[in-house]
Amino acid sequence: MFSKQLRLQKIMAFSPVVSIFGDDIVDNRFKTFQKYIQNPDIRNMWKDGNHDMQGVLCFDPTTHPIDRTQARLINDHYKRFQLIAMPFGGHPCMQMIKDAMGFKPIQDLVINDQFQAYNLRKLHRQSKEISSVYKKRIEHHVLLKSKAPKS
């Protein structure tokens, strides 16, 4: 929202929620909050940010499908963002990595200027093997699929 004023050049975003308004995205979770918006003019400020900004936008396309929609909405306006799908990571999508390894490996990527898609995917892959968050999300997903009506 304030990327132009702050002169941001790079950004890292994890399962961001960029809009809560129905004309941008259908997401009923935020309907009750919309009535509390004091200044409706700010609702579209995020669209007018620094479009030269580049970054990494991580999201979980499986556990919370709305994250995929939010990521796509952001990418429609900020073409230089690299979208990184982290299936069954949770919301925010780094839950699985944090559960398995703590937050230090993610911080190390930033500190060592190695925060790139390849390295994030590698952490995600390594976390799958030991994360209880991942195992619970997979079990839940399999359960939902088994209960889905057959077509």
Strand and helix layout:
Elements: H1 3-6, E1 10-14, H2 31-34, E2 54-59, H3 65-77, E3 81-85, H4 95-101, H5 104-111, H6 117-128, H7 132-147
Parallel strand pairs: 1-2, 2-3
Helix pairs in contact: 4-6
Summarize the structure.
This protein has helices at 3-6, 31-34, 65-77, 95-101, 104-111, 117-128, 132-147; strands spanning 10-14, 54-59, 81-85.
Features:
151 residues; three-stranded parallel beta sheet; 42% helix
Molecular structure report:
The protein has 151 residues and is an alpha/beta fold. The chain has one domain. The protein has seven helices and three strands; from the N terminus they run H-E-H-E-H-E-H-H-H-H. Strand 1, helix 2 and strand 2 form a beta-alpha-beta unit. The longest helix is centred in the C-terminal third of the chain and has 16 residues. The model has no long low-confidence stretch (mean pLDDT 85).
Number of helical elements: 7
Unreliable sequence segments: none
Q: Summarize the biggest pleated sheet.
A: 3 strands, parallel
Order of helices and strands: HEHEHEHHHH
Output the strand order for the largest sheet. Answer: 1-2-3
Strand-residue proportion: 5-15%
Cα Rg: 17 Å
Distance between the termini: 43 Å
So what's the overall shape? globular
- Class per helix and strand makeup: alpha/beta
Average pLDDT reading: 85
Give the helix level as a range of percent. 40-55%
Q: Compute the number of structural domains.
A: 1
E-strand count: 3
